[in-house]
Amino acid sequence: MIKGFNYIGEEISAKGDTVYSTFNPKTNKETGWQFHEATKEEIDGAVRLAADAFKTYKDFSGKRKAEFLRAIAAEIEALGDVLIDAYTQESGLPEGRAKGERGRTMGQLRVFATLLEEGSWVEATIDTAIPDREPLPKADIRKMLFPIGPIVVFGASNFPLAFSTAGGDTASALAAGCPVIVKSHPLHAGTGELVAAAITTAARKTEMPKGVFSNLNSRGIEVGKQLVMHPKVKGVGFTGSINGGMALYKLAAERTEPIPVFAEMGSINPVVALPSALEENGAEWASKYAGSIMLGAGQFCTNPGLILGIKGSSLDDFITTLGIEISKLEPTCMLHPNIHDNYEKGKKEIAGQKGVRVVSENGASVAPNHGRQKVLTVDGANFLKNPKLHQEVFGPFSMVVQCENAQELTQVLNALEGQLTGTLLGNTSDLEKYDEVVDALKGRVGRMIFNGVPTGVEVCPSMHHGGPFPATTDSRFTSVGESAIKRWVRPISFQGWPQELLPDALKDENPLRIMRNVNGTHSNQEI
């Protein structure tokens, strides 16, 4: 089923001479599938089709778009074991992870379908006219959210399904009414092609406009650059490295018409282990965090890469137990030899910094591309002096920072760059006792976790998967959950507009029966 072609709307295309293969990190061999890199002509064709599709797709009803999203989920499910096999071959990840991620991908699509069917997400707001108001009359003003146009989505290396071709960025953009062009990730282009075929089939079955979705192959940066710079592209979704995300962000800002780039880029997800937690359950937390650090070979954006504590016997015991517990776990396969090599270089560089000591290191011989876990420790003073110790090491790695007191712990938190998550281990009275620590943590993260682990991101309305720079380019937005749709829309107000020409969401009779803010009161009734 995998042919290595690009999907330009409903058509397959292979006009370019540049080809590349994906790689199986578990067997340490190429998969044998070859992919044609998209040409400038194919890029332009995909974007122009998307711009044409936007003219009609933006006005489709929530019900019709929901049918499309549900059809995509059904077509992905219909791929069955073919998709699971491609996923495991190209990622080295186990079958259970593949099936779980497939379920999450289908679940995200259906969540947005339900959101569209209900309809209130457009945030319709109405202030009716008061013509006899003194000293000046008040005009009738109505506002709601509208899609911004074609969106380019960059697939993520570590989530071949849930953050890639039909992942959260694509699902939310399509839900908003924006056509999508995916720049397929070169590490799992075969998996991406299968999903692209499923989306295209769903689009055809539900009679979507040609160009509502395209999928382009590329192993380098040129295709991505051309997509971001194309004048008909109106937004970008990206999950990956800080270097990659910032390169796209700068390109988008340099355009004649700058466009938003919503990039999730990097995080070390600080965990504050307060004395009460370590005194009461230190061994249990050490075991849980050993598992969290090792989960998915440490290749999650929410991997706990930094653990902070206050010096004392309970922290000493925790560090010792963490080292013992993590040494019991078997190394697992990483996504690609390049990712494995970067991991080895990263942990070696951090380990060589002044004041850093090894807690636990797996030095055994392992299969190719398997990430050997490592835990380091350093005191707070050295951590504050050395920004290199703040850098993410993408893999099964973590560092424990031993602070002299709560004041130094607060200083360390304030010195950190923006993060996706922050975790606090303790009891409820600690939240008041260490209020400055809590405030410092809150100031650096997008999600606050109490007595848990950061790995695992629930897809639900209350989830915020974002954080201050450089975790994301805009901390106001999430890439997970229903609110992710707000990245791809903008508000438009209508003043004094004729009733018959207003969008249904803003008409007096409220034919959609959605919840609206009418003169300051939330209601689904007609005016």
Describe this structure in words.
With 527 residues, this protein is an alpha/beta fold. The protein is 37% helix and 20% strand. The chain has 15 helices and 23 strands. The protein has a 7-stranded mixed sheet, with helices on both faces. Strands 21-6-5-22-23 form a 5-stranded mixed sheet, with no helix packed on it. A 5-stranded parallel sheet has the order 9-8-7-10-11, with helices on both faces. Helix 9 links the parallel strand 12 and strand 13. Helix 2 packs antiparallel against helix 4 (95-118). The longest helix is centred in the first third of the chain and has 24 residues, at 95-118. The N and C termini lie far apart (54 Å). The model has no long low-confidence stretch (mean pLDDT 97).
Task: Summarize the topology.
Layout: E1 6-8, E2 11-13, E3 19-24, E4 29-36, H1 40-57, H2 62-78, H3 81-91, H4 95-118, E5 125-127, E6 141-147, E7 151-154, H5 168-176, E8 180-183, H6 189-205, E9 213-216, H7 222-229, E10 235-239, H8 242-254, E11 261-264, E12 270-273, H9 275-294, E13 306-310, H10 313-327, E14 332-333, H11 337-351, E15 357-361, E16 370-371, E17 374-379, H12 380-385, E18 397-403, H13 406-415, E19 419-425, H14 428-433, H15 435-442, E20 445-450, E21 489-495, E22 516-518, E23 521-523
Parallel strand pairs: 5-22, 7-8, 7-10, 8-9, 10-11, 12-13, 12-19, 13-18, 17-18, 19-20
Antiparallel strand pairs: 1-2, 3-4, 5-6, 6-21, 14-16, 15-17, 22-23
